[in-house]
From TrEMBL, chain A:
Keyword vocabulary terms for this entry: ATP-binding, Nucleotide-binding, Transport
Alphabetized Pfam families for the sequence: ABC_tran (PF00005)
Name this protein carries in UniProt: ABC transporter ATP-binding protein
Signal peptide (from-to): none
UniProtKB/TrEMBL annotation, chain B:
Alphabetized InterPro entries for the sequence: ABC3_permease_C (IPR003838), MacB_PCD (IPR025857), Macrolide_Exporter_MacB (IPR050250)
Designated name of the protein: ABC transporter permease
Domain ABC3 transporter permease C-terminal: 286-402, 672-781
PANTHER family in the record: ABC-TYPE MACROLIDE FAMILY EXPORT SYSTEM PERMEASE COMPONENT 2, MEMBRANE COMPONENT OF TRANSPORTER-RELATED
Stretches of the chain forming a coiled coil according to its record: none
Transmembrane portions of the chain: 21-41, 280-302, 335-361, 373-397, 418-442, 672-693, 705-733, 753-778
Domain spans labelled MacB-like periplasmic core: 20-237, 433-635
Subcellular localization(s) per the UniProt record: Cell membrane
PROSITE patterns, A to Z: PROKAR_LIPOPROTEIN (PS51257)
Length: 225, 792
C-alpha cells in the first residue's frame, strides 16, 4: 500500500538546518499494523505527516496505492486524503463547538455523502465504539477515553484504507489506553491498515511490526510474533 | 456543509459571549449610525423629487456684474416672465411668484391664525406637481380673491369640517377670500413650501414697482417643452433684459434646474461652484462609511487576535478534507452571519434613536421598512460589512498549516499583528481627525456667534406690522415706553439681520466711471439708530421731517462713507439712476453685519420714512428688565392698540442663531458621530487588549515571579497600544489640519487653527485609550502567576 524511497525532509530556520528524515526507505503492506518508535526528534511525527499527506517531502518518492504522491499539490493531497486516510491524534482534536455526532459526521460532509447516509453511518460507527448514548454531548462533557473513542469513530467513519495514529494513548490512563488499542486492533483485523507512532512499548506490542527510527533513519525493524 | 458552518458559527458566537458582544455591539452601532446618515442623505438627495416635471422646471436666475464680483440673484424683473413666454418657443410655461413666502392672518369666526404662503400665477399648478384633493386647478384662480390651501392649512383653519370649497375666510382683517382648492400637503423635502396660494394678480396690483425691467423682486419659474435643450434657451436669455431695457445694468438671465436647487445652490462670480448642501451630503456619506469601516476593523482585529482559539478547528477540518477555499468561505459566512445579527440589532437601535436623530437634523425621517429600497439598502450595508469584516480573517485563518496548529506550535503572529496594528492606527486616525474637526467647527461657529455685529441683537424683538400698528405707531410707541420695560421702538422696511433691498444704479462725485457697487437701502423711522444699537459717528440722526425733504436726507454706514472718498461724507450727494433723485448725507453710523454673517459689512443708506411704508417694528427691551415680563407688557399694549391681531414676534438673536443652521447641524452631527466613532474604536481596543493580555499571560506570570510590580506590568501591556494611538495622532494631525484649513477658507470671517486643538484631540484619544486598555492590563497584572504558569 505504501512505498517510500529515499525520503528526505529538512527544517530550516535562518541559521540552522535540521534533517528530520534522512533518505528513509520503507514499505507498508495492506492490512498491516505498523508501530513507529524512536526518541523525541527522530522524525516519527514528520514521517506520519508525510504519510498522511499533511506535509510534503523535500526529496524522494512516496507511492500510495500505486500512485506517486510526493509532489501532489494541496488540493490533490486533500482529495486523496479525505477518501483514504483516517487520523487519530494524541490530543483527540475534536471541535469543541460540535457535538459527538457532528464531529464524527464531519469527514462524511467533506466527502459529499448524503445526509441520510451520513446519519446511518455515524450511528453505525458510534454504536460500534459504544458511545451512541453520548451522541448529543459536546467534547468537553466527555472523559479522555470517550473523547478518543469519538476521535477514532471520526477516523473510521469514512471507511479509510489507512489509519494514522499519533500516540493515540498518550493522554489516557492505562485502562482507557488499552481500550483504544483494542479498538485499533479490531479495526486492523477487519482489514484497515494502521500506522501508529508511539513511545509506549506496551502499545507497540499490539502491532505486527515495529520500525525504530533515529535521526530520520530506520535503525531497526522488529517483527512481532 | 452550510448547515454545519451555521451551527459552528452560532455555537462559537454563543460560547464566546464577550467576544460576540464586542463585535455585534460595535457593528450594530456602526450599521445603525450609517443607516441613519443614509436616511438623511436619501432625504436630501430626493429633494423636490415629488415634482414630476423637475427635469424641465427651472428658476430664472440673474448674474449681475459689480466692480469686484458677479452676484447671482434669484429674483428677476416682474415683467420678464410673460415676455419669455411670448418670445421663446422652447418655453412651455412660466410662472411668477413673490420671492419667498409671506405671513398673513386668516380668520374663520373669532379664531385668527397666521399662515405663510405665496402669490402665484395659475400656471403654478401645472408646472409643479400639486395634487388637488378638492377643487379644480384649471378654475382655482378664475376669481381674484381665491384661495388654495394645503391639507394642513385646511385643518388649521377649519378643523375637521368637510366641504371646505366655497367657504369664505377673512384675510388680514380686510378682505374675504373663497377657498377654491385643497391640495395635498407638500413633502418636507420640497424647496417650494407654503400653506396657502393666492392669485399673483393681487400682489401685482399692489406692487407698482414690479412693472420696471430694472426692479428685481420676483421669482420666475420656467417650464421647458420636452426635448428642449436648456443651453439653447440660455443663449436666448443671455441678453434678454438688455433687449427690452437697453439702459438696464449688465445682467444676464440663465436657467437653474430644479434638480440642483437644494444641493448645488452655490455660485461664485456668476458660476456654479458645484458646492452647496451637497458638500454636507458628501461629508456625511464619507463619515458613514468611515464609521462602518471602524466597526469592521474591530471584527477583523478581534477575529485574528483570537485566531489561536480557532486554529485547532482549522487544522482538524483541513485534516478531514477541507480545503482553503471552503474554510475561507466558512469564515466569510461567519462574518456575514455576525453582520446579519448586528443588522437586526441595528434596526432596533434605529427605531429607538430615530426620534432623537430627527430632532437633531430637524427632519421627520421614517425608517420606511416597508420600502423595499430601504430593506435592500440595509441588507447591502450588512453584506458589505460582513464581506469587509470577514475578508482578512478568512484569508488569515484558512491559511493555517494543519501540522503546526495540531501540534500546538505557537503561531507566528507577526504579519497578522502588523496588520492589526495598522488597522488600530486607521481607527484612531479617523477618530482623532473627527475630534479635531469637531472642535474646529464648534470654535468657528462660536467665533461667528460672538462676532460684534455693529448693532445689539440681544433683547431686541421684531414684530411684523399687522392691522393698524403702522397707523397707531406713535401711540403704540408711547404706550410701550410707558410700561417701563421698553427703551425704544422703531420701524423698518426690512429685517435688520437679513439682506434686503439693494441697488447698484447710484452715482456720486468721486465715483470712478463704470464702477458698479451694490448698496443696500433701508427705510426706517428716526428711532431706528437708537433702538437697534447703531452708533452715530458723525453728523446727525434722521428726523421725521427728513421724510419729505428734497433732496432726501440720509444716514450712511462707515463703509459707504469710505466709498464716497476721503474727508467727511457729510453734505455729499448721491444720485439715483438717470439722476432722477438725489440724497444728501446728514450722518454716518458704524458698519454692521447683515445678510452673510461670515462676510464683511456691506454699505447701507438709511432714509426716514412714514410708518405706512414699513413692514416691521423693533422693540428694544431695557437691559435690566426680565424678558418674560417685558414680552407680556408688549403683548398687553398691542392687544389694546391692535386688538384684531394675535401677538406675533421673534427675537433678533434667535434669527441670528438660525442663520447657522447648516453649520450647527454639521457641528452637532460631527460631535455625535465622533463620539460614536471613538466608542466603536474603544470597543475594539478593549477586546484586543483582552486578547493580548491572554496571549501574554505566561510572560506576565514569569515576570511576576521574577518580581515585576503590578504598575510595571500594566504599563508594559499598555505601552504598545499607546504607541499606536500616538502614531495615529501623527497621521491625523496633518490630515485634519489640511481638511479644516480648506473648510475654513470658505468663510471670510473665520478663526485661526491653534496648536492646542491638536494637543487636546491627541490627549483625549490617549486618555480614552488608556482608560480602555488599563482595565485589561491591570486585570492581567493582578492575576495569580501560579495559575498561568501551571496551565502551560
Amino acid at each position: 500500500m505504501i512505498k517510500i524511497t529515499n525520503l528526505e525532509k529538512f527544517y530550516r530556520t535562518e541559521e540552522v538546518e535540521t534533517i528530520a528524515l534522512n533518505k528513509l526507505t520503507m514499505e507498508v503492506n495492506t492490512g498491516e499494523f505498523v508501530a513507529i518508535m524512536g526518541p523525541s526528534g527522530c522524525g516519527k511525527s514528520t514521517l506520519l505527516n508525510i504519510l498522511g499527506m499533511l506535509d510534503d517531502p523535500d526529496e524522494g518518492s512516496y507511492v500510495f496505492n500505486g500512485i506517486e504522491v510526493a509532489h501532489f499539490n494541496e488540493r490533490k493531497r486533500a482529495d486523496l486524503r479525505k477518501h483514504n486516510i483516517g487520523f487519530v491524534f494524541q490530543s483527540f482534536n475534536l471541535i469543541d463547538e460540535l457535538t459527538v455526532f457532528e464531529n464524527v459526521e464531519l469527514p462524511l460532509i467533506y466527502t459529499g455523502v448524503t445526509a441520510a447516509e451520513r446519519v446511518k453511518r455515524v450511528e453505525e460507527v458510534l454504536d460500534k465504539m459504544q458511545i451512541m448514548h453520548r451522541r448529543n454531548h459536546y467534547p468537553q462533557q466527555l472523559s479522555g477515553g470517550q473523547q478518543q473513542r469519538v476521535a477514532i469513530a471520526r477516523a473510521v467513519v469514512n471507511k479509510p484504507k489507512l489509519i494514522l495514529a499519533d500516540e493515540p494513548t498518550g493522554n489516557l490512563d492505562s485502562s482507557n489506553g488499552n481500550d483504544v488499542m483494542e479498538l485499533l486492533t479490531d479495526l486492523n483485523e477487519q482489514g484497515t491498515t494502521i500506522i501508529m507512532v508511539t513511545h509506549s512499548e506496551h502499545d507497540a506490542r499490539y502491532s505486527h511490526r515495529i520500525i525504530r527510527l533515529l535521526d530520520g533513519q530506520t535503525v531497526m525493524e522488529n517483527i512481532m510474533v | 456543509m452550510f448547515k454545519n458552518f451555521v451551527k459552528t458559527a452560532f455555537r462559537s458566537l454563543t460560547k464566546n459571549k464577550a467576544y460576540s458582544f464586542l463585535n455585534i455591539f460595535g457593528l450594530s452601532i456602526g450599521i445603525a449610525c450609517a443607516s441613519l446618515i443614509f436616511l438623511w442623505v436619501e432625504n436630501e438627495v430626493n429633494y423636490d423629487s415629488a415634482h414630476l416635471k423637475k427635469d424641465r422646471i427651472y428658476l430664472a436666475r440673474e448674474n449681475q456684474k459689480y466692480d469686484t464680483y458677479v452676484f447671482t440673484h434669484s429674483s428677476t424683473p416682474g415683467v420678464m416672465g410673460p415676455a419669455i413666454q411670448a418670445e421663446l418657443p422652447g418655453v412651455a410655461n412660466t410662472c411668477r411668484t413673490n420671492e419667498g413666502t409671506q405671513s398673513l392672518l386668516f380668520a374663520t369666526g373669532d379664531k385668527p391664525i397666521f399662515a405663510y404662503g405665496k402669490y402665484v400665477e395659475s400656471s403654478f399648478f401645472s408646472i409643479f406637481t400639486l395634487p388637488f384633493l378638492e377643487g379644480n386647478p384649471a378654475t382655482a384662480f378664475t376669481q381674484l380673491h381665491s384661495l388654495v390651501i394645503t391639507q394642513k392649512a385646511a385643518k388649521k383653519f377649519f378643523g375637521n369640517d368637510k366641504n371646505i370649497i366655497g367657504k369664505s375666510i377673512r384675510v388680514d382683517n380686510k378682505q374675504d377670500y373663497i377657498v377654491t382648492g385643497v391640495i395635498k400637503d407638500i413633502p418636507a423635502n420640497s424647496t417650494i413650501q407654503f400653506e396657502w396660494l393666492m392669485p399673483f394678480q393681487i400682489y401685482w396690483d399692489k406692487s407698482p414697482w414690479l412693472k420696471s425691467w430694472g426692479n428685481n423682486s420676483l421669482s420666475t419659474y420656467i417650464e421647458l417643452k420636452p426635448g428642449v435643450d436648456p443651453k439653447t434657451v440660455n443663449k436666448q436669455l443671455y441678453g434678454f433684459i438688455q433687449k427690452h431695457e437697453p439702459t438696464s445694468l449688465l445682467s444676464h438671465v440663465f436657467l437653474f434646474n430644479m434638480n440642483d436647487w437644494h444641493l448645488y445652490d452655490d455660485f461664485k462670480d456668476g458660476f456654479r461652484t458645484g458646492g452647496g448642501q451637497i458638500e454636507y451630503v458628501r461629508l456625511f456619506t464619507v463619515i458613514a462609511w468611515i464609521i462602518l469601516f471602524i466597526a469592521c476593523i474591530n471584527f477583523m482585529n478581534l477575529a485574528t487576535a483570537r485566531s489561536e482559539k480557532r486554529a485547532r478547528e482549522v487544522g482538524v477540518r483541513k485534516v478531514l478534507g477541507a480545503n482553503k477555499k471552503s474554510l475561507a468561505l466558512q469564515f466569510i459566512g461567519e462574518a456575514l452571519f455576525m453582520s446579519f445579527v448586528a443588522g437586526c440589532f441595528a434596526v432596533v437601535f434605529i427605531m429607538l434613536v430615530l426620534p432623537a436623530f430627527n430632532l437633531l437634523v430637524q427632519k421627520q425621517l421614517t425608517p420606511g421598512f416597508d420600502n423595499p429600497y430601504h430593506i435592500i439598502g440595509l441588507l447591502f450595508i450588512t453584506v458589505i460589512c460582513g464581506l469587509v469584516a470577514g475578508s482578512y480573517p478568512s484569508l488569515y485563518l484558512s491559511s493555517f498549516n494543519p501540522v503546526s496548529v495540531l501540534k500546538g506550535i505557537k503561531l507566528k503572529d507577526t504579519g497578522a499583528a502588523y496588520i492589526r496594528k495598522g488597522l488600530v492606527v486607521m481607527q484612531f486616525t479617523a477618530s482623532v481627525i473627527l475630534i479635531i474637526s469637531t472642535i474646529i467647527v464648534y470654535q468657528q461657529i462660536q467665533h461667528v456667534k460672538s462676532r460684534q455685529l455693529g448693532f445689539n441683537k440681544d433683547k431686541l424683538v421684531e414684530i411684523p406690522l399687522q392691522g393698524d400698528m403702522a397707523k397707531n405707531f406713535n401711540s403704540i410707541k408711547q404706550d410701550l415706553v410707558n410700561t417701563g420695560y421698553i427703551q425704544n421702538v422703531a420701524l423698518s422696511d426690512h429685517a435688520i439681520i437679513y439682506g434686503g433691498n439693494n441697488t447698484s444704479g447710484l452715482t456720486w462725485d468721486s465715483k470712478p466711471p463704470g464702477s458698479q457697487v451694490l448698496i443696500s437701502q433701508r427705510y426706517v423711522t428716526p428711532e431706528f439708530v437708537e433702538t437697534s444699537g447703531l452708533k452715530l459717528l458723525e453728523g446727525r440722526n434722521l428726523t421725521v421731517t427728513d421724510t419729505n425733504a428734497k433732496p432726501l436726507n440720509m444716514l450712511i454706514t462707515q463703509s459707504m462713507a469710505n466709498l464716497m472718498g476721503k474727508g467727511s461724507a457729510l453734505g455729499k450727494r448721491v444720485h439715483g439712476e438717470g439722476d432722477t433723485a438725489s440724497a444728501v448725507v446728514v450722518g454716518v453710523v458704524n458698519d454692521y453685519v447683515y445678510g452673510n454673517m461670515y462676510g464683511k459689512p456691506d454699505p447701507v443708506m438709511f432714509f426716514s420714512t412714514a410708518p405706512k411704508n414699513t413692514e416691521l417694528m423693533y422693540v428694544r427691551i431695557k437691559s435690566q428688565k426680565e424678558i418674560e415680563a417685558s414680552l407680556t407688557a408688549v403683548q398687553d399694549v398691542l392687544k389694546k392698540d391692535n386688538p384684531a391681531y394675535p401677538f406675533d414676534y421673534r427675537f433678533v438673536d434667535d434669527q441670528f442663531s438660525q442663520m447657522f443652521q447648516s453649520e450647527m447641524l454639521v457641528s452637532k452631527l460631527s460631535r455625535v458621530f465622533s463620539a460614536l466613532a471613538i466608542v466603536i474604536s474603544c470597543l475594539g481596543l478593549f477586546g484586543l487588549a483582552a486578547y493580548t493580555a491572554e496571549r501574554r499571560i505566561k510572560e506576565i506570570g514569569i515576570r511576576k515571579v521574577l518580581g515585576a510590580s503590578v504598575s510595571g506590568l500594566a504599563t508594559l501591556l499598555s505601552k504598545d497600544f499607546l504607541q499606536l494611538v500616538i502614531v495615529s495622532c501623527a497621521i491625523a494631525f496633518p490630515v485634519a489640519y489640511s481638511v479644516m484649513h480648506s473648510w475654513l477658507k470658505g468663510y471670510q470671517y473665520r478663526i485661526e487653527i491653534h496648536w492646542w486643538v491638536f494637543a487636546v484631540a491627541g490627549l483625549t484619544a490617549i486618555l480614552i485609550a488608556i482608560i480602555t486598555i488599563s482595565f485589561q492590563a491591570i486585570k492581567a497584572a493582578l492575576s495569580n502567576p501560579i495559575k498561568s504558569l501551571r496551565s502551560e
